[in-house]
Amino acid sequence: VSGGAVEAVAPAKEVSAKVEVEAGAAAVAVAKNMSFREESNRLGDLKDAERKALAELRAKVEEAIVEGKLFDDDSASVKEAAADEKKPEVAAEEKKEDAVEAGEEKKEEEAKEEVAVAEPAEEKKEEAVAAEEKQEEAAEEKKEPEAEAAAEKEETAAVEAEKAAPVAAAVVDKDVALWGVPLLPSKGDEATDVVLLKFLRARDFKAGAAFDMLRRTLRWRREWKSLAATAADGDDDEGDALPEGACVLDGADREGHPVCYNALGVFADEAVYRSALGTDGGKKPARFLRWRVRAMERHVAELDFRPGGAASLLQVTDLRGSPGPARKDLRVAMKQVLDLFQDNYPELVARNVMINVPFSYYAFTTVFFPFLTQRTKSKLVVARPSKVTETLLKYIPIEAIPVKYGGLKRDGDTEFACEHDAEIAEVVVKANSTETIEMEATEGDTTLTWDVTVLGWEVRYTEEFVPADEGAYTIVVSKGRKVGAGEEAVRNSFRAVEAGKVVITVENATRGRKRVLFRHKAKSALAKKC
């Protein structure tokens, strides 16, 4: 929209598409691809076994919160297990002592037999030695009761001190929450079940395992020092801000899930790489890990944990220009992030789409796949550079896909901000054929604006204005040119001083068909703002 003048929308006819051989074929509206759907979080949609597991987990969480034991680390059970492990060791030591005593008794008997056959002089000598030994034994026997008494005294004192020590009262916090959702089931918040279901699904609906996972997550969050920066905090301490474009939310998919774009190419810069993988002398985790956790926290804040809401992200990871699997530090950091997210952010990523994947990635995945759960593997989608737009279009509307990935979304764009401007049409160009798209201006002084993208491109593209007056000359808006596979969507406009139409010609010389997606609008000088 240009200028500040009051404008009125010119009546524009429906966009038509023509094939040179079969003129007059109409452009068809884009049929939305069937996107994935999350498993239902509504209680009525759960199976009987799943409802039973949820009820069991709710009971465990309720009891732990009310009794103030939700954050306990089960130290008592750990001590009991350690005591059980020590029992065999004590028994073995006692057997060893008995064997030593038996050996000493045998030696004493042999010594007595030798004394019986020895000469009288030797007998006296042996008697003297035996007397000395008896005196030493008597002294040792006298010391043993004293040592035992001292040990018993110390044990008694330790027990009394332990009893006298004040027992810390359990802290009951009924307002404990996770991701902004209260965890106490008796509060009646419908989002509580949605959060608990995520832990159940991550543990195959085993209530005990899901409960343990929840407790570990809560303990980790309490200990993690870098979670102070939330979505509302704009300042990052110690320069822990993510590199620009490294991890951003941009739009939503067809089901309303926020879309998170991760661009690993920013780490190809050596300075950024060193900064990201630095460990601050071992005092803190790598900055890369802190970046990802803090970014994840901001993104989770955008989710809707109510039943039926978008309670997970669609994650797009762009590997174009990334440092590659040869960089060990990056591999280690990504493995840490993977483990951390699987353990503490269960079921918060509905789909992970990896795009611009180089051939080396397939060797790279052999390192990480053994560490992925089966559910995580089932959510992974891989797209080579030539299939990026086509893959993203399965989950995200073309108008919400950024132009750098072949979509029509431009930052700060106002041209197609109105709902009636967002209608998308599609034309299929068959192999070795040509099609045209027509956009009409029914009166003079009308501005036509359009967006066009072709999945995979590799076509010849031309734009012309044909006046309604047959005697007028055709005006070339854009000369014919070959458009490569990596081209962004075309955005152009033309001000028609007289009635006519803009004709876009797409020539496909390849052996495969091409999908052309486009939108347009026509405004006269008196058109109103939307």
TrEMBL record:
SMART domains tied to this protein: CRAL_TRIO_N (SM01100), SEC14 (SM00516)
GO cellular component: membrane
Taxonomy of the source species: Eukaryota, Viridiplantae, Streptophyta, Embryophyta, Tracheophyta
Protein name: CRAL-TRIO domain-containing protein
Keywords of this entry: Membrane, Transport
Region (Disordered): 71-160
SUPFAM superfamilies in UniProt: CRAL/TRIO domain, CRAL/TRIO N-terminal domain
InterPro entries in the record: CRAL-TRIO_dom, CRAL-TRIO_dom_sf, CRAL/TRIO_N_dom, CRAL/TRIO_N_dom_sf, PATL, PATL1-6_C_GOLD
Subcellular localization: Membrane
Superkingdom as given in the UniProt entry: Eukaryota
Ranges of biased composition (kind: Basic and acidic residues): 81-160
Limits of the CRAL-TRIO domain: 235-413
Molecular function as annotated in GO: lipid binding
